[in-house]
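Design a sequence for this backbone.
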């Protein structure tokens, strides 16, 4: 079913409605199962579907459709999604959403993942974000440890995290599992800023991610990790003054987000050790 609105159309599949800028044939989705959820409010050029088939559920990311928000041409969205597939294979991790398959589908390109339950930390999902920030402190401490371990893993595999922000993090309250759900723009090291302003949410980006020609490395990701700490415990920045953990942990996160990269911890492992030392000193390690 397709209905027109002022500047977009509403299309419905399996009783679930979503917006596009023009009609698109999603008949190929039947191969993957029944649609039970659609994520259409993306600026990446992708549209994503929750699909159920028998007892299994899947998350399918698709590029090639005329999404409502994106100004990205379909061909560019397809190439970006295709180029992200090797990242999910190279960076397999207990906390990374599991890629099952990828390839041409319909009139575009699809990446199929195992469904991950959870609420998203991202501020763009207001209801989920409110629930996320209501998670008890000790559990958020555990979530942050999972994020740090994942970033350490990424670095160890020779990659640099680009566009890693609150919308990349999910948490399942029933199982206590943290899931990283989006690494599409991560890059191989060594990495140099070739864009000026890199992809990403500015609150999680270091100064060098705005400077064309700047080296992007592990110390850059130390900043990202420190910004994630403020997002979880301190209102997204040092200036918002809503830090909810002891002062020693604030000092560690503030050091990580120094504009002067020479003042930051010089590795993610150093940040991890300083953070864990402060966690143990304040007996916050048990969930």
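Sequence:
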């Amino acid at each position: 079913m397709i209905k027109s609105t002022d500047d977009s159309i509403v299309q419905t599949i399996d009783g679930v409605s979503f917006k596009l800028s023009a009609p698109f044939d999603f008949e190929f989705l039947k191969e993957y199962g029944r649609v039970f959820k659609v994520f259409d409010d993306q600026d990446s050029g992708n549209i994503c579907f929750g699909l159920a088939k028998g007892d299994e559920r899947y998350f399918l990311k698709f590029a090639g459709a005329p999404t409502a928000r994106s100004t990205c041409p379909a061909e560019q969205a397809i190439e970006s999604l295709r180029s992200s597939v090797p990242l999910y294979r190279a960076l397999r991790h207990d906390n990374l959403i599991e890629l099952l398959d990828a390839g041409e589908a319909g009139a575009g390109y699809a990446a199929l993942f195992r469904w991950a339950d959870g609420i998203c930390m991202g501020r763009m999902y207001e209801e989920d974000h409110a629930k996320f920030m209501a998670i008890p402190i000790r559990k958020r401490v555990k979530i942050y440890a999972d994020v740090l371990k994942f970033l350490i893993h990424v670095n160890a595999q020779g990659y640099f995290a680009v566009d890693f922000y609150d919308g990349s993090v999910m948490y399942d309250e029933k199982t206590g599992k943290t899931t990283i759900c989006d690494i599409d723009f991560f890059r191989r090291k060594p990495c140099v800023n070739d864009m000026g302003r890199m992809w990403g949410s500015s609150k999680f980006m270091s100064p060098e991610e705005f400077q064309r020609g700047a080296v992007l490395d592990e110390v850059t990701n130390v900043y990202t990790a420190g910004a994630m700490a403020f997002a979880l415990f301190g209102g997204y920045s040092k200036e918002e003054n809503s830090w909810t953990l002891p002062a020693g942990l604030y000092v560690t996160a503030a050091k990580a987000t120094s504009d002067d990269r020479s003042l930051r911890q010089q590795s993610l492992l150093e940040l991890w050790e300083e953070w864990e030392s402060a966690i143990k000193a304040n007996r916050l390690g048990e969930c």
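Residues 137-156 form the longest helix (20 residues).
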